[in-house]
Amino acid sequence: MTMEKQKGKGYQSGFVAILGRPNVGKSTLMNALVGEKVAITSARAQTTRIRIMGVMTRENLQIVFLDTPGVHHPRTKLGEYMMSAVKDALDGVDAVIVMLDATDVRPTDIEIIRKYDALGVKCALVVNKIDLVNSDTLAPLLDKLSVEKADAFIPISAQKKNGLDRLVKVLQGWMPEGPQYFPDDMITDQPERVIVAEMIREKALRNLRDEIPHGIAVVVERFKERPDKDLIDIDVDIYCERKSHKGMIIGKGGQM
């Protein structure tokens, strides 16, 4: 539920969906733009399962970013749900960012660019992870991609925060005049319980062996502040697909 706050003439606001293949850096980009961690990241594809909203508020500007699950051809019920989240995120947006990984550009990326160019909204083609490729490789890659139809073409490093000022400037030029949808101090629409559950799932994805698939779900059962201390007691249940995974998740002697 948005809380619109009327601003004077010249205030700009809008919604931008971040699209791309799994693991190209969409969540890292949104965290960098918002200025705080609101979406989890890992080296595994399809880390993001749900649409997560991040709010960037600056003087005379508010952009609401929608971080979406990686665009892919779903083979499971979870995959189908994730793709429906992508479609939902595109409803009513003012612009889209299509992200590519400079270290691993595939034909699928070009399909995504051309598919979402047809949405009829402004499209920024953002090439991420430019810090991980040398200039001899990067220059011809950028030349090759520059022929694709897009309203802006911006190489960045979301991890190093290079190129983000230019990206924000471009997006600001596309945002219509509008109200401030969310308060200055609001950075996401996700409740604290959801963020806690996602951060625990992130640690599981980063630390568990390759045998543990994405079939892990985290549910916060209790989230209670202590009245006498600046502490929060959190009880969490972790669900896994197979009984054989349970021991790996717990670890020897509960070490994991």
Short description:
By secondary structure, the protein is α/β, with parallel strands linked by helices.
Structure, described:
It is a single chain. With 256 residues, the protein is of the alpha/beta class. 31% of the residues lie in helices and 23% in strands. The chain has seven helices and eight strands, in the order βαββαβαβαβααββα. Strands 2-3-1-4-5-6 form a six-stranded mixed beta sheet, with helices on both faces. It has a two-stranded antiparallel sheet with strand order 7-8. β7 (216-225) and β8 form a beta hairpin.
Instruction: Pick out the low-confidence regions.
Output: 72-83
Seen as an oligomer or otherwise, the chain set is single chain
CA-based gyration radius: 20 Å
In terms of DSSP E residues, the strand content is: 15-25%
Determine the mean pLDDT.
81
Order of helices and strands: EHEEHEHEHEHHEEH
Helix content: 25-40%
> How many beta-strand segments?
8
**Structural class of the secondary structure composition?**
alpha/beta
Give the CA-based shape: globular
> Ends: how far apart?
38 Å
Q: Supply the number of helical segments.
A: 7
Placed side by side, the strands forming the largest sheet appear as 2-3-1-4-5-6
Largest beta-sheet characterization? 6 strands, mixed
